[in-house]
Batch of 4 targets.
Target 1
Amino acid sequence: MAEPARLQPVLPAKVRNLVIVLGDQLDAQSCALLGFDATQDVVWMAEVAEESTHVWSAKQRIAVFLSAMRHFAEELRERGLALVYTCLDDPGNLGTLPAELAQAIAQLQPAALVLTAPGDWRVLQGLRAVAKQHDLALDLRDDTHFFSTVRQFAAHAEGRKQLRLEYWYRELRRKHGILMDGDEPVGGQWNFDADNREAFGKAGPQNVPPPTRFAPDTITQEVMALVNTRFASHPGSLHSFGWPVTRAQALIALHAFIEQRLPLFGQYEDAMWSGQVWLYHSHLSCALNLKLLNPREVVQAAEDAYRRGQAPLAAVEGFIRQILGWREYVRGIYWTHMPDYLERNALDAQAALPAWYWTGQTEMACLKDAITQTLEHGYAHHIQRLMVTGLYALLLGVKPQAVHAWYLSVYVDAVEWVELPNTLGMGQFGDGGLMASKPYVASGKYIQRMGNHCKGCRYDPAQSTGPKACPYTTLYWDFLMRHESLLKKNPRMAMQLKNLARLDAQARDAITVQADAHRHAQL
């Protein structure tokens, strides 16, 4: 089978619309394709090096985008749509989306451009600039893979002193009738988060279903070979690659999650266990963010499982909140606060990201496990991201832009609209509380409570000083001391600061010395 770009498309003699399809817009029902006329419109797609190098993208992330794009191109051709597709290794590839688009405009002379709103501010500005340079109208259409528009979020946010997920989530549930009994939430309450914080216990997770993975076909194998050659120095590996790269595969993954994992998803969504990569999480965020799945069908499948008695309400509500709540919320935060949001650094954190974030070579067992897993699979579940890799960077004082670049680089589901607010805002408190009501900080005792990593670690989470002191615990107290004046203004930090007040001057000095020594050793 020839690669998509090697096939010669049959193009209209005169092009009305050049329809731009980006690598995270792989939906045959995309709004950009509405009104498409095969006799006068052309789809344009391009693989370019810049999308893998503007951050040092890991191999799994590069491969999932390129493979999914090439499979989608095949689908468009099978539907008879004229398509101009540039592969990464095509001779003369100019390396950036704006340059490739400008070249296509020069060759095809379209009357106008059509584009579904991108998920990345940088990409949108680049494409807008090309349209302006060529004096072409750009028909920018709302992305229908969301329950809300950015304008609706902006209207919700207007006049509020504080933005909080819970209010936006409730508004969307009412509007779309999701998990509702008339005007009231199913079960009599909106949020069952308190029921979803169990650890596995000493025996660990039992009978976890195998992950739904897909053997690479010819197209994916070609992409993997290309990535291993072109991006040989990039982090991670492809030997375990098995992500869904077509809509058919994504639907299989969705069905498998609903049947096999959703019933225990809520109960164990915050739990961790050494060497257990997949647990009861959905592994659907990549397919959702590539637009291989529509969030409406995912939410509906989960609610149907509850209505059938197949999954408990706490699990279903917790899962739906991630999609209808967080996914919509972070997108609203991103697009109503860019581009300034990217530069925020409310805690004035300036440290560099430790080099071992790219290798996993650290003696801290929880971090070693999470980072090694991330580099091997392009995946870690949300507690590993927030309360292991993210928490350590926050406590260490790493510049949030460096943390953002790492997350955007290594995860297969990372598109900037969703990754940046989650990392800089929720994970690093870089926005000063715009997205999250407090810094998510904890000592090593939290990690000990939610998993088994501490049992095999050289560090003791109960100790903050001395040779066995857990760096999380040392840095936790150091963080509270360094930011005490700021945190006193936050009522949600009152209990933690009350505990801090119990430390005498000698204990504080010892923690500061240990924290400084640890920080120096890592950097």
Target 2
Amino acid sequence: MALILEKISNLKNKGKKHSNSKTYVLKNLEKEGIKKNNFKVALVGNPNSGKSTLFNQLTGSHQHVGNWPGVTVEKKEGNLVHKGAQIAIADLPGVYSLSPCSFEEIITRNYLLEDEVDVIINIVDATNIERNLYLTTQLLELQKPLVVALNMYDLLKGKNMKLDFLELEKLLGVPVVPISANRGTNLEKLLDAVVNNKNVTTRARIYDKKTTEALKIIEKSLIDFGITDTSVPWLAIKLFEDDELILHKLNLSKKVVDQINEQKNKIELSENTERQTLIAIQRYRYLNMLCKSIVIKGENKSTKFTEFLDSILLNRFLAFPLFFFILALIFYITFGPIGTFFKDAINSFICDGVGNASYVFLNKFGASAWSKSLIRDGIIQGVGSVVSFLPQIILLFTLLSLLEDSGYMARAAFIMDKPLKLLGLSGKAFVPLLMGFGCSVPAALGTRILEKDKDKKRTIFMIPFMSCSAKMPIYAMFISVFFGQHKVLAIFLIYLTGIMVSIFTAFMLKGSTKKNEQPVFLMELPGYKLPTAKNLFFHVFEKVKDFLEKAATVLIAASIIIWFLQSFDFGLDMVTDSSESILATFGRLIAPVFSFCGFGDWRASVSLICGVIAKESVISTMAILYSSNDGTSLQNLIMVHFTKSSACSFMVFALLYTPCIAALSSIKRELANRKIFYLYIIYQLVLAWGISALVFNFSKAIFKA
């Protein structure tokens, strides 16, 4: 480790050879290329403090910003230039402390200890100052250059509060800059503080006299042992708190360990308090005193408004009905008259307008039959049939982002805590499960916020049944053809089926969870706020960009390959009847398996196999395979080759079978067990086939077809 852990053993030996350890460390840093105009900055703060929003503002990144804990699961990095200085910023997971209790805390602490961080920006929620400053006290102990970014300072007025940030700066001994990450206020001043920051050694006195004296003795024991790094004060505190990871890393002699234990026991006896609790008590005592001197509170209208809304939205009787009503409203707007109108307009423009125009254009220049078929029936028809669903995707993610930015999504996680506990999970599992409705890839990564490995594995098994947005074109196509008058109800039932199968899977994997093993769900409910157009744009833009990139790469490539395989036979002669093609030969081998599900047509089977590449490929493949020379639309062709029963069965299979290759890759990495991964794939395929067959036979009795 760079300065604290990894180099401790080296510094213990080398420090003896250098009379001035500080000079030695500085020279060592110069050799490693750290220059005055090149800064490595770590962005650290509590969840919901606006950390990711600040990162976006500083770097121009389009990273997703959320209101639930654990959204920043992986380290994010960005670069900027300020007054000639090159600044590299790492956005670290949101944490409440630097104690290694959760996955996020381990990532953040390891980064701060292992990397050559020049300056730490600690983002603090000014409207919740005391709770946020608890982390600040721990960052101060690292003895690294620190700048406190006092975020949401502009909201204090609405909460009828005043905060003396200059007095806070004086008391903490580090630069304090009031900012608004949401509005981009005072960010220049913040960067000035980063660039001009010095190695401040005058820090706040947090602990009482007895504890401070004990810590000084522990520090001296470490220095005598040969640890001469500037992190010695922080190491002393961690050893006082019985931090096993630090104790293991330092590999101290028995003599030093005995000296440290002597001091810990001495304080514990004199204070009649456990040493771990003692440090926390003294930190909060200091923060309470500090806040009294810098904060003036009046009547808080904003808090009253939040409490009023929560009394309705979190009401024990209204919470669930309102939650499902909001979801139903989202589906109605997305798949109802508004979404359908825009989808049909784009489909008509691309598949009919552009497709026919391209055919006329190619005819004019005497293009060959195969090239006309490739461009119109392969590329335009294949990709266009998927791109036509873009308006509905934009609507869906805009509405979900509105809920997220407003603060309601955190409430949804809170609401779902109780039902998830019945499955042996906490409300925190709702975060990756909800992300699964967007894409299974980040959802699988999001399971890292779960502390227990078995909870993580169970949640991963559940995620693919949360129907991702890539499957939406499949449902929209079949529902518009067979259930046009009941679109909203049909799409709601599809999503509900996925949720019910997910719950069934969780019960299957639950085993025996004892009461005292029930996971504890601790999270902060942020205040309600009006979403900004900028953040809303970034949220939706990211999803749309991913969709269009996939359409421009994977779908075009898949469409060309599918067109080729269904247009030529094994002798590479172009066929007029696709049933004589290469693809039809392979399709007929697997089609009998799906005959029990009602769609034993080889074209339907091949479409599902192509969906493993990307779920959007299902519709683009069908557009190619079912295409006709008379210009009949895909909707009309589906009506000919499917019934209501087989359509229901096909949608259910598409909902439940294995996710795309990208998702499978992420899931395999997170499961970290090859046997479980293959079992996972087999389970999904068998379950999808079995439920699809049941749905087909059950719906036949209802629809008589």
Target 3
Amino acid sequence: MRINPLKFSHSLTQPMKYCYSLLLFMVTIWSLAQDPNSNESHFEQILEQIESKQKVSDYAEAEVLIKQASLLLQPTYKKEVRYKYHMLRGSQYFNTQNSVEAQKVFYEVLDLAKELNDSFKIATIYSYLGSTYVQNALYKKALENFETSLEYGFGNHSESHNGTLVNMALAYTGLNQYDKAIEHLTTVKNLYKDSEDYQNVAIIENNIGEIYRSNIEDYSRAKAHYWRAIEANNKVGDKMALGMNYHNLGTLYLEMGKTDSALIFANQSREYKLVQGDEGGLATSDYLFGTIYLETGKYDLAIQHFNQSLSVCKKYEIMEGVYFNSLELGKVYAAINQFAKSQEMYEQSNEIAELSGDVQLKADVNFGFYELYKKQNRPAEALVYYELAQSLSDSLNALKAKQNLEELRTQYEADLAETENMMLRIKEKAMMQELSSQKWLLFLSLTSMLLVMIGGMWLVRTLKQRNAAYEVQKAAKAELAMNYLELKKSEEKLEHSNDFKNNILSVLGHDLRSPLATTSSLLRTLSIGSLTEDEQKELFGELKKEIDISLVSLQEILVWSRLQMDELGKLTEIIKPEDLLKDVVELHEYNLRDKGLHVKFNVESHKGLSADINQMRSIFSNLLSNSIKFSPIDSDITIGIAENDEHVLISFRDNGKGISKEVLENLNTRTNRITEAGTMGENGTGIGLRIVKDFIAAHDGTLTFENNADKGTTVVVSIPKKEIRELNPT
């Protein structure tokens, strides 16, 4: 499980560095002063001590011994000895969360393992490399190394094989491939069952339950696996593990909304932890109790338990625990209107979130501030925090870079337990130290001083390395966020292209269907062959007009398409709108005659229109077509041309039934397509108005619809005027 390191800075003073160097030199000289022929043997003894310290997680003393061994290492030592030294050094980096340095060491020692031609050693290195990539959330790279490890094989070393499968399950979980993760864990569980290793069976069952609970949210299956873990732990009598199992059951029932059952199992977990004297475990129990009481509205009890957990976390400097307890206390105090106290708790959480740099932690705190200010009826501050929280939350969706809060909670419990165990080991070590002579007393005193100072150096270096690793992780998150934004832009561009394609098809259907259908009808009439010469001439004239309409429409569509693709601007020229309108009326003569419509012009004195003639032709043609469509038979259409101080106004007035209030509002406000059947059932796609609006917008103009006082509708095109000479109407 990956840990988010928190940033702390420490430094040693220069005198301390000198003292450390002097003491290290004394110890080294003392070591080398022994039998020269036993240097390699002494080196191997140090390696055994390092190995024993690492097994009990005493990494501070292991670091001291590694530094001592590095001074004794000789290239003449056996390859097996040098391999063991480098593996212990890489394990030290790995165990202290410095995956970058660990990878360097493991890749270096890989060549040595291949020289030894030892498949087990090679498999072990690849397994370690996979685990370092898991620490950095590079799950695919981790799986590559795990698979290579299994290809080399571990022989009879079943524990190494099983451990690799478990780590592969972690990688699959990070990739959200939960089925594969459970499959690998089930394989390991069955292997442990065959060897009747029920302690490890319980661990695997619990881990499978956690995947079903926290990742898949299949509470029924999660519960079944928790109970199997409890059954296995009862067989081996592991009471501390039982406390954890019941704790997980309590959390499960809380997530299911069954708070009574959650309390029962939380109490069972607490009883096991009390017996074991597990102070860290009791802190996690208090956190669970606080969460349950917050959920059920028992705020006094929630505050009591969160504060108890917070006290332990501060005592052992478990920053994740301080964060979560403070965050929940902020929610409780806000619920009971103690806003100042709530603000204090959220600020405490925010300090830790900023220190860690974790985006999810920052987002949750800002959502907390948002809820707090919203409850205080302070909308301005609430909006600021909501937008900040939403921005942080959105960035977490960048591919697979987000941290799982459940991992942080689990890690804070593990840190508490590890801190408790370390304190017990220190106390035990202090009790066992007895001196036999004044000489050894002096030597051991110097050695103790050395260990303390080296431990400080190790702590500083480790924390700096953690910070460096975290900075790398932050940079990766930022890069993923940028990739996500680029992906969203690509998706929007693709969606725009798809809409544009659909619009083009609609336009083609709208503007070319009618004239082509008329052309087809005229051609069928001509093919009959029984027409008089005058009838043929008339039909040929109509056919030419329909073809001209089709060509003009096609030209308009091409112009509009290029405008949509930002490939075309306005080819502005000075035009007389009445001349252009007469051409448009002539093109629609067949449709006008078909419905017995009469076009009247009402042209006032005006200045010319500075515009793109092709785009204006398309605007006028579409608006006249609409007027024809909604005009009753044997009625008038009035086309007006006028101007005011700033605009030239072209209007189309019909005598139809008018437009409903709802459709009229949509026409004047929406950009979506709207279509209705005409007075003779004429159909449309609504795209004509889209073309009109786009061309008018290209001229910085406006389009408005209004119902007439008596009957019918008037559509007005308003185009900004240019300073040109006045033209007299004809």
Target 4
Amino acid sequence: MTTIRFGISELPPEGADAVAFLDGLVEQGHRALELPFTKGFPWKEKHCEQFGLLAAERDLRLSVHAPYFAGLTIPDEDRGKQSLAAMEHTMKLGKALGAPVIVAHFGSAYEEEPSALMDRIRSRLDYVAPKVVDLGVGLGLETAGNKSSFGSLGDIAQLASEYSFVRPVVDWAHVHAMTGGQLVTKEAFASVLAFVRESFPGWMIQPLQVQFSDNEFGASGEIRHVPYGEGTLRVGPLIEAVQEMGLSMVLISEARDMKSHGLIWDEVRDHMTTVGSPGRPLASAGIDFPSKVSVVKDGERFVPQQVDRPITFSNIDKVFFPGDSYTKGDLIQYYTSIAPVLLPHLAGRPISMSRYPDGIGGPSFYEKRAPGHQPDWMKIVPVVSDSMGGEIDFLVADSTESLMWFANIACVEMHPFHSTAETPDMPSYAIFDFDPAEGSSWEQLVAGAQLLRLALDQVGLVGYPKLSGSKGLHVYVPLEPVHGYPRVRRFVGELGEYLAAANPDDITMEWDKPKRKGKVFVDHNRNASGQTVASAYSVRPLPGAPVATPLTWEEVGELQNGDITIANIWDRLRRYGDLFAPVLAGGQTLDQAEDALGIANLR
């Protein structure tokens, strides 16, 4: 389940042919490249675009190291803003290159208290956030290498929880120096990696960007880089730890000479070949899934390798999406790979299963009740159901293995409740479901969603759009779980009526289906208790295996259902991370909005 991309930190020699330079990297087996813009900006945006296209054609993942003067801790405000401008420019060049992340240092600690430095860093990130948050480029903050610098993994984790565009970058030479040379065993690397996995959401470290070089250090931390082999840091134990933990990693050699690059790469390859997973790939499609799973045949079933809970699969080569030849194995692999992003959106929520035992061309059915043949480790929550006569047991997805199990029983779609088992009567978001009626156009749906964005702003709320993956578009309004389902449904209905009144040519709230023709229906009943919609990142049972995908508001109108599938969502995640992370945060109530709509008396 491990994918490791190795690359070097190097600019093409001046005057060198870019094609020949990149082809040379590929011939050596490299799959990544860091461009060290550490002293300034040697390339213009157009040059970056051209180079980025050439790299993409060769499946080389690019990153950019920002100038050393582009830090976040500078006390002087004017110099601090100049530094931020350099960081912003690096991120814009990263966008032109197609780089999912740029690397930057925090800067000096200036002998100040950590709390004061964090406050300054937050103010700087607040300043730059509106300019960079939608670039699709992560700001990779690098771990500090000496006591005069700022930035531990804990500091990065705190900022990453507050700023969606922040990413961790582990410089192993820096960690080695700051721990007094402790990174000499597989277990030492594994302890740091375990902290990373516990401290950052899965999508943020899928893959984890790291840097590697040998170094000399003293009591205050790193002194200088040295040729590989002259110090005490070795890459082999890192590769062993990463593979045993099933992580994915982009490893950039920051050695100062080509010989050291080669020695590091040789050792990486040696350990990648000696630590491997037996068996055959689970997936059959030519999709570059992260965290690839290998399976071993056991009678009529298949056993996945490197999993934490006992599980087996059946009929993994059965075609589930005939036009694309995607199999059940591909479906299981998708849900395995998407797990770090999807699981937070399913956490604690009862799931209605949409099952297609013979693939999307065969019969299907919804199943709410836990079927009884689920593994003992599957989590079950009781839910009171008037329609089904009392309390029934629902399943909950709380692990990668649980998603594997759902997919193995041909649950193509994941339909979670709007509320969690902890607050079953209080949804944690409101959903505006824009459902195109017969004869309506995608442009009308986009017009409705954009009008809703304005309306939400006027009543003091923020919404987040998502392609349904099928016909429509959903806008989620995150809420604190303090309002009952009837109140949330009424709010969506009232605001929907305003939308229909403001744009009667495109939007309707008519219950009579013939009267909806040529318009987009706002289905506020999706907010009733027991109603569900396909989760963000759920596969939909349609040709191409489309995915219900969160969007930026700028993308509403640019992307349509079917554009994002199980095959191409991965680069998007590497660029944007989880655009629906704010939905998980809640933080909004309906009180102010109801006052604005004049329905406060209905509380």
